[in-house]
Design brief:
Helix content: 40-55%
Number of strands: 15
Radius of gyration: 21 Å
Strand order of the largest sheet: 2-3-11-8-4
Strand content: 5-15%
Structural class: alpha+beta
């Protein structure tokens, strides 16, 4: 029970090592075998571990609601957004997402993603050393989403500070971090209110201009809906890709045989990206609220109970994946739940996949002999999102 309490404390602002992470995977395996649906008296959460049960929780919105969840209060920009609503409001907002992230619109970004990646690689090639997070994994998706939205180049510095979370990361404690986060969210909100107003008066060829006149079911969206959507795009379009690229770099150095094969056969990268998503998922769990009294895997869960469905545990379930602890870039099928499932499937998934499939082959081909700096621990912040904060690496300088 003590280990259960310790592991269920896998929470934001807690700094972990990679050893902690793999011990957590071991705990997942124990829980799948012994207590697949477990009520944690410390956190007051119903924790779900098996693939089929997690899939049911994240998919069945008739029984498991995305509304009125912890952390989605009116003080945050997530309140009322697509990730915190059920149908029919969710359908209205999803139609807006579909306007922003059409397959054509995402695919057209491929060339620009390659250009930005090349610029970032050119900046480090002479050095023979980089931090894959701060030098590539963070700035690449941040620049892409900033350009998509139409953030002016002169605002890049302040935009970069917001999305990096650097100010919040140095907070002395959780309360200070929350105050700083709320203050920053208000600054970002005010910024996009002004930018939307400017685009209404003088439209440009960017997403902000399109959103300023967008209609769903014949109705314009409110200012709050539009601005909250912009802020959500920042999170979905930047954080997921950043973590995916950093996790890929870790896997490629942990499994050099996979890296060497990808360098010989770059056509395998698409499958490798899916395996990285399964093996070290950017998102570790999903929260839902039970709409009514219900049963799951033989356990009675009362109405309004908050459910913590562990996507990361589902991805290691041997009932779904053969040899789940093995990193296999040719794994087929690979129906991981890292991006969720159903109507709440991650809105940033197509963009994250595109950026990873463009950037990772360029990184491997241009940074020869890429290795982690020895004796430097990998530090991770873990909560809903799994974040490698820093990953110093060496390579053969040009």
């Amino acid at each position: 029970m003590e280990q259960q309490r310790r592991r269920s404390g896998f929470a934001p602002h807690r700094l972990l090592s990679m050893e902690d992470v793999f011990q957590t995977f071991q705990w997942f395996a124990q829980m799948r075998a012994s207590q697949p649906v477990f009520y944690d008296e410390q956190t007051h959460l119903w924790q779900i571990f098996r693939y089929d049960d997690v899939n049911e929780v994240v998919t069945d919105y008739n029984r498991f609601s995305s509304e009125s969840l912890p952390g989605f209060s009116e003080n945050t920009f997530l309140e009322g957004t697509i990730v915190a609503t059920d149908p029919p409001q969710h359908r209205k907002l999803r139609n807006l997402v579909n306007q922003a992230f059409t397959p054509r619109a995402v695919n057209e970004l491929s060339g620009r993603v390659a250009e930005i990646t090349q610029e970032l690689l050119d900046d480090v090639k002479e050095r023979g050393r980089l931090d894959i997070v701060s030098d590539i994994a963070f700035p690449l998706p941040a620049k892409v989403i900033a350009e998509m939205l139409g953030v002016p180049a002169e605002d890049w510095d302040i935009f970069r500070r917001w999305v990096s979370g650097a100010d919040i990361a140095v907070a002395k404690d959780r309360e200070s971090a929350m105050r700083m986060q709320h203050s920053q969210e208000q600054q970002m909100y005010d910024y996009f209110v002004q930018l939307l107003d400017e685009r209404r008066r003088a439209p440009k060829d960017d997403l902000i201009s399109d959103l300023s006149v967008a209609e769903v079911d014949g109705e314009r969206l409110s200012e709050r809906e539009l601005v909250s959507f912009c802020l959500l795009l920042l999170a979905a379009g930047q954080e997921t890709t950043k973590n995916l690229i950093a996790n890929a770099a870790y896997c490629f150095t942990e499994y050099p045989e996979a890296r060497e094969r990808l360098m010989r056969e770059p056509g395998l990268m698409q499958g490798a990206v899916e395996e990285i998503l399964r093996y070290l998922p950017p998102v570790w769990f999903t929260l839902r609220r039970a709409k009514t009294d219900l049963e799951l895997a033989g356990q009675h869960i009362p109405a309004n109970a908050i459910i913590q469905a562990w996507n990361a545990s589902a991805n290691r379930d041997a009932a779904q994946f053969s040899e789940p602890e093995h990193f296999a870039i040719e794994r087929q099928p690979n129906k991981h739940l890292s991006f969720g499932h159903g109507i709440h499937f991650c809105i940033g998934a197509p963009l994250a996949r595109l950026e990873a499939n463009v950037a990772l082959p360029m990184i491997l081909s241009q940074l020869k002999n890429l290795e982690r700096v020895p004796d430097v621990p990998v530090r991770i912040s873990a909560g809903i999102v799994f974040v490698i904060r820093s990953l110093p690496m060496t390579f053969q300088a040009r």
